[in-house]
Design goal:
Number of helices: 2
Radius of gyration: 22 Å
Shape: globular
Distance between the termini: 37 Å
Structural class: mainly beta
Amino acid sequence: MKLKLTCILFLILSACGIDKESPPPLASINNSGELDLSFFSNGFYSLDGSAGLTNSQDEIFDMVMDGEGRILAVGSSVNSSADLDMVVWRLTASGTLDSSFSGNGVYSHDNAAGGSGDDVGYSITVDDSNNIYVTGTSMNGSGNFDMAVWKITESGALDSSFNGTGVFIHDNAAGGSLNDQGNKIKIDQSNNIVVVGYSDQSATNRDLAIWRMNEAGVLDPTFDTDGIVTQDGSAGGEDDVGNSFAFDTSGNLVVVGQGESASNPGDMVVWKYTSSGILDTSFNTTGIFSHNGAAGGTGFDAANDLAIDHDGNYIVAGYSRNGEGNTDMTLWKLQPDGSFDTSFANSGIAVFDVSEIHGGSSNDTAQSIHIDGARNILVAGNGNQDMCIWRFEENGELDTNFNVDGFFSHDSAAGGFGIDSGSAVVEDIFERIYIGGSSENASGNYDATFWRMK
């Protein structure tokens, strides 16, 4: 009888295309909002000394998944000369460092701009051939920072076909000969590389900056005639910073960040540009939307990331200062014309304060946003000095099927009982959730940290 049942089961599995070589069952099948204990036996993994100096600062700022289902993270680590290197980590689909990448799963680079100082990677993306592009900043010979783009091969080496060296450096986008920085990088439908960040017009005036270059690492003159767009005074004041962006279905750039207003240190700002680099005036009549006071205070609002949902609406993630002087995690939902979608949390704005549940009075911030296959909104960041991930339904309400409360927080991943923070969130091919960020270790330094959740 047992043999007969076994044969029947084998035939059923064979008919379904399942065999012993198939991937394991999806760890996230229940979407429970719990740590995946099959990941390093505890659900998290911290790394120290990636650039050569142990017991120092290692931090992850962004993540992406490549075409092979591998997780790529970018950030910085201290080298043996005690300055920061740009670092890329690659994990296999099983969640371990990939030794086929740069020999040990870690690639680091220093001195891109020639200044023998800090290099930091803030954002990462991949093309269809699994080539890796990173943007961030690198110190130049004058002691200022230049915007940098690195192109790294799938095997973990600089690709010299890109700008002759594998690195593109740009300074003085806004005319101030001071600091320039790339905060987000993506590849458009024409395989151009687009970077959003900022450039200093002067010591007291920072402008939003957008760079677009072709696959060879040369600025694209069809983008605002010189490959560069800068924007100042978006909210009425001086400083403007672009933190992230997305392409809509028409190839327009929807950029989010912050801008100083006439009366506040900063407003949350959304800019919408055409693919040629011109402000799209169909968006809020000017191409620019700004907002302040989402959490009830009048001090500071900012956007760190956005996602465009299945209906083409913009879900913006960041924070807003509340009436008590702390920041609350905040989501804004805008329609493509720049008006609030009031069906979202009944107002177009969802605000969450971790302190109301766990006590304390610390800041809460959304750093990264991702919309999953079920149209749930995943948000990673920090709350009350812990790594936090929230899951919202499409209507802006917390999804209580996710860890009961709709959010999960974690502390002391690196053993230090200090600050843990999530900077990026992605899903792998098995729908498991990865959060990348940092955790304070017992020595008071930060370790680069991955969390994996069911």
